[in-house]
Write a structure and sequence with these properties.
Blueprint lengths: L1 H27 L7 H16 L5 H14 L18 H13 L5 H17 L6 H31 L1
Helix pairs in contact: 1-3, 2-3, 3-5, 4-5
């Protein structure tokens, strides 16, 4: 268990450190055009999130989200025809959508996946998969409101009687 905790801490520290550095670079007007270490870190974190059922999934989602919030992730956009083993922005978006739609996962992980999808749009306003993210958000909102609405009516009726 201690190994998982240390891995989780390392991933979180890595994500927050790069996020902080990117934010400072933006403030100083430095453009992130070619930063091989950052590209490598993003590739590895996203690859681990996409292709491994990891016990540190929440830390991976949070770290990627923190970096995405500060600017575009150095990933190819990807298309529906992209291979299953390609590390692309589309594959990341699809994985995050699967995570937040998976009711078996803890709500903390699901909420973080939702935030990370939003951060992808904040850090890269011209993201090509914005429509897919918004449609997933709307479907989730519709599903949640349909599930919760009868409970509110039922609970409201009980408190009146």
């Amino acid at each position: 268990m201690q190994r998982v905790d240390s891995q989780e801490c390392s991933v979180l520290a890595l994500g927050h450190s790069y996020s902080y550095s990117i934010n400072n670079m933006k403030k100083m007007g430095v453009l992130l055009e070619d930063w091989p270490a950052y590209e490598s870190v993003v590739q590895e974190l996203v690859k681990k999130l996409l292709f491994e059922n990891s016990p540190i999934q929440n830390a991976l989602v949070l770290a990627v989200g923190e970096m995405a919030r500060q600017g575009p992730l150095p990933l190819p956009a990807g298309t529906e025809e992209s291979g299953d083993k390609d590390v692309t922005l589309l594959a990341l978006v699809q994985t995050l959508i699967k995570i937040f739609n998976n009711k078996k996962l803890p709500s903390k992980v699901r909420e973080q996946a939702i935030s990370t999808c939003g951060y992808l749009c904040v850090g890269q306003p011209e993201i090509s998969h914005k429509k897919k993210i918004l449609e997933a958000f709307l479907a989730l909102a519709k599903e949640v409101s349909v599930e919760q609405n009868p409970n509110h009516i039922h609970n409201g009726g009980k408190s009146v009687s």
